[in-house]
Amino acid sequence: MKKALVFWGGWDGHEPQLTSKRFASYLREEGFAVELSDKLDVFADLEMLMDLDMIVACWTMGEIEHDYVVNISKAVGSGVGLAGCHGGMCDSFRNNTEWQFITGGQWISHPGGDGVEYMVNICHGSSPITIGIDDFMVKSEHYYLHIDPAIEVLATTLFPHPDVPYYHVSNKPVAMPVAWTKYWGNGRVYYTSLGHHDDVFEGAEAALLMKRGMLWAAEGKEYAIKNALTTARFESEAKMY
After folding, report:
1. Does 241 reside within a domain?
2. Where are the beta strands (DSSP E) in the chain?
3. Cα separation of 99 and 234, whole Å?
4. What are the tens digits of pLDDT across the range 97-138?
5. In-domain check, residue 88
């Protein structure tokens, strides 16, 4: 049986307890054994982390011991999947750049605040995550992020929004990523900027993107084992911590 850890906490406005329970239920429906934790101290146990198939982040605007991020880096690098949404993953730890390197991006603004209605444009390509999903509208925070250029973009949204005047409108239009995948060593990482509140995932498209993203990320460990992938080629870089 595959194992997952869902950790939640930080700013209550993102409803981390609700989103963590929702994501845990998605995984249990797929046969995962799921542990939920509202303590970051869980990341002190590297051996436990290495035994997982999946880590799901639901923590916003917190502070984390750097040694804990090193343990997460090692676990994900070995093949353990990492997934999350909105500020629960890409605004978890603003002061830890290694966390941001692992996840692929960092929130910087949401012009217009909550309640902005915008289009999510699906990028159809080689990823199984987006198959059969069409463009869809959401009404939520419209996330502007700093991103890793190495990510594989699965969905975008257009900035600037026609109804939201702010200083960024003086620039050219940009297609801002809404969902992406990337790799960290042998591990798979999935993120979607949707999910300001838990009820965003009552939308069929948003829910499907999150479910598929988590499952895709969780397949990385099995792939690494089957293909005898080790972390040896990453270990010299690990000395940079």
Report:
1. no
2. 3-10, 33-37, 54-60, 81-85, 105-109, 116-122, 136-140, 144-147, 152-159, 174-184, 187-192
3. 17
4. 999 999 999 999 999 999 999 999 999 998 999 999 999 999
5. yes
